[in-house]
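Late entry, evening session. Most of the bench is empty. Finally got around to the prediction I had been postponing all week. Sequence below, unchanged from the version circulated by S.P.
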Amino acid sequence: MDTKTYLQQIERLDRKIQNKFAEIEQLKTMATSISVAQKDINVQTFSDKDRMGSAVSKIVDLESEANEIICEFLEKRSIIIHQIDGISDTNMYHILFNRYVMMKDLGTISVEMGYSFKQVCRIHGNALKEFEHLYGERYLKCV
């Protein structure tokens, strides 16, 4: 895994959490619209007779998965923030923190810092090299 991919884990996990909650919300909406089958009708089907129960079970499973992802997100975020804190150059630190923790694009960061986009890209590249120099041995061999 390269340095950018390593640092982007925070954003990827954040998106996975958002997607999981969207999936849960969609299932909840579907569950509230499930109608109860009338017992008078004697139709043989192979569908799930307890659709509400199945929907609730799926929601509980998804919420459990979301909680696992949240725990992983918090752990990785904490580690990466601690590592970024180890960057001594203020501009490099600022760019890495805003790009990978605050999830801002380099254009936004350049405007906030009052630097040209090209200058921010140059500092970002140097910051990635510095980060890799300091911490690369911990993640470069990971797949």
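Two things to note before I forget:
The CA atoms of residues 26 and 59 lie 10 Å apart.
The chain has a mean pLDDT of 90.
Will write this up properly tomorrow.
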